[in-house]
Amino acid sequence: MSNPPWHILGFGVIGQLMHAGFSRSGQQCLVIAKPNQPLPAHHTVQYQNHTETFDIKVFLPGDHPIERLVVCTKSYDVTKAITSIKHALCPTAQIVIMVNGLVDSLEIAELTTGSVYWALTTEGGYRNEAHHTVHGGSGVTRLGSGPEPDWLSEWQKAVPNSHWHTDIDPYRWEKLCVNAVINPLTALHQCYNGELENSELKASTQTSIDEARAVLEALGFTLQAQGFHNTCWEVIRKTGANRSSMLQDTTLKRRTEISTILPPLLAVAAKHHVATPQLKNTLTAFQQRFPELC
User: Fold this and answer.
1) CA dihedral defined by 222, 228, 230, 231, rounded to 10 degrees?
2) d(Cα 133, Cα 87) in Å, to the nearest integer?
3) Cα separation, 62 vs 88, whole angstroms
4) Contact at 8 Å (CB) between 68 and 6?
5) How far does Cα 258 stand from its chain's mean position?
6) Dihedral sign of CA atoms 171, 177, 181, 182 in order
7) β-pairing, 6-9 with 29-32?
8) Within 13 Å, how many C-alpha atoms sit on residue 195's CB side?
9) Which of 7, 125, 126, 206 is the most exposed, fewest CB within 10 Å of its CB?
């Protein structure tokens, strides 16, 4: 008996890269279209040395219940998006949520009787057109929460350099901190990730890293805190040619994920009496420059 297909909810950059990975590894993958927004017959991913085109099979009402779902929407849309397809979920659905910002685990648990997992990736990309994605850099994907599922080996074929963690929370916060450093600064300065190493931006980037590291330390995530300096700069270098999602959103005048990235981090910092003047200034500057996109 063949394995159940994967379903992608949210067909932006990460959704398209995930679809490409499943397709390249020979696994069935269906895309859930937004209401009244039909999808084309295919999409294209431009890798470093070649370009590939992938056929899009759309999930239709009346198809078999969804057993495997990967959610790649904006973080502020996760609850609404899952609610919109709740009727199509199998009672034992396996749901992997792969977003940038902080999402309330309890809210998601109320939407399903199945299993919920979290995935975090430093894989990079940006879109030249709606369905043409440029792969901006390879990265590490961490996923988990509880025991390893039976589909992990299939996932790893589609998403190389993926690692399972029984306790994913330290890495969820580490990812949030990485995003809090990189995304707002690249959007404010309208620059590629790699340009944060430039002399005029390096100091503010390093200060942001130091403040975010202190929050990780206060939360008790000592291992992540100790390596955060290297982790953050490694992400910046490996995705140097990438335009962050927040930069892309500001360029296209779309709502950003700033509300699910910096405010939650600053709230935790305040709770633990961690000083974060640079991150606060970054949020203020962002809100003043892009008030309609917050």
Assistant:
1) 110
2) 31
3) 9
4) yes
5) 13
6) positive
7) parallel
8) 15
9) 206
d(CA 108, CA 102): 12
Distance CA(27)–CA(19), nearest Å, equals 9
CA separation for the pair 125, 51 (Å, rounded): 13
Find where tokens 């991150």 sit.
279
- CB neighbours of residue 268 within 10 Å: 18
Phi, psi of 120 (to 5 degrees): -130, 130
**Long-range contacts: 185-189, Cβ < 8 Å, 24+?**
185/282, 186/243, 186/244, 186/246, 186/247, 187/244, 187/246, 187/247, 187/249, 187/250, 187/256, 187/286, 187/290, 188/282, 188/285, 188/286, 188/289
What is the predicted pLDDT for the residue at 130?
87
In whole angstroms, give the CA distance from residue 97 to residue 81.
11
Residue found under tokens 């085109």: 53
Tell me the pTM: 0.93
β partners of residue 141: 121, 162
Tell me how far CA of residue 2 lies from CA of 5, 62, 250, in angstroms. 9, 20, 43
d(CA 274, CA 294): 24
In tens, the pLDDT along 111-156 reads 999 999 999 998 878 888 889 999 877 788 999 999 999 999 999 9
CA-to-CA separations, 137 to 47, 48, 125, 160, 242, in angstroms, rounded: 9, 8, 7, 13, 7
∠ CA(13), CA(19), CA(21), 5° rounding?
105
Tell me phi and psi for residue 71, to 5 degrees.
-100, 115
Residues 6+ apart with CB under 8 A from 162: 140, 141, 142, 143, 155, 156
Angle of helix 262-271 versus helix 277-289 axis, rounded to 10: 150
Burial of residue 57 (number of CB atoms within 10 Å: 0-12, 13-18, 19+): middle
